[in-house]
Hints:
Structural class: alpha/beta
Distance between the termini: 18 Å
Shape: globular
Number of helices: 11
Number of domains: 2
CATH architecture of the largest domain: Alpha-Beta Complex
Strand content: 25-35%
Order of helices and strands: EEEHEEEHEEEEHHEHEHEHEHEHEHEHE
CATH topology of the largest domain: Quinone Oxidoreductase, Chain A, domain 1
Number of strands: 18
Helix content: 25-40%
Radius of gyration: 20 Å
Amino acid sequence: MSTKMTAAVLRDFNKLELEQVPIPEPGFGETVIRIKSCGFCATDYKAIKGIRRNVDFPFIAGHEPSGTVSAIGPGVTGFKEGDDVIVQPSGYCGVCTQCRLGNTHYCEQAFTTGGDGPEDVRPGAFAEYMKTTETCLFKKPETVSFNAAALTEPLSGSWKGLIQYSQMQVGDDVVIIGVGGIGLLCLMVAKAAGAGRLIAIDPSAFARDNAMKLGATHTVDPRAGEPKQAVYNIIPGGPDLVVEAAGPISAVKMMTDLRRRGTRWNVFGITTHEKFELDGGLTHFLEGRMDASFGTTPLAMQKAIRLIETGLVDPEQIISHRFTLTDIHTAMDVMGQEQRNKVIINP
Length: 347
């Protein structure tokens, strides 16, 4: 059996190389996964392009994988070779105070495989194989495809943001700012949860068309006029919940402008360190609530798996492009284009 695998190794910003590297070997409590599918997240793209700079080289990105267990280390009891699995990228110790409180994404010993956030960043899934702990694995339902399973992690973040944190309720009027991949998943969760009027705001006609196909009741082009007026023409009383799933600081500023008294708002899409201002007195008297959502937890992953397995959300509907690992440079080009949705890598 070969001891080498193909991996997309980032040697420097804008220097992504296909290389032959050693297949990882599992240690105690660890497993090696043969990657079947991995979502291409905007944070991966930003790391490769140097838009985000918190990257240590060499780096193997890719944090939305599904696959098959190919090897297990000593101490692994819940999985065996040949099991089809979904991988949670954010690892945790399970014994620190935050883990014991259920906030595993705040873990004092946190790591991530191919992602962003903690200091401990391990090789990800833009490769034929990757290593992770048993605690980061979930069994893939037989009825769920590997491509759909790979989108469990972003779907779980959408569930966590809208349902667990912002406490969306049946009948809520919801505005989603930015309906790329993550925004569409937020929209689909909101639809499944019984949103009333569901407005998608995006400057891309391609994105707005996708939003309508996947459950939006209305769309708004922010370049066509004043977006606040357009939203309030549809929802005269103002939105119950606004989700920023776009990324640019302008989207966060738009979100704060859409508030009325009691509006809940979730800072979801932005990951860069940029500033926005709030009127303190206005914020006080509006008595709204700001939430945010990053990463995922075992609870959110399990909820997302349930949504997919029961057909309440079909994440495969947002996939627009699929590429092999050897075509990852073409995938990078597509990631920079407007008319694309979720890009999948199938090693």
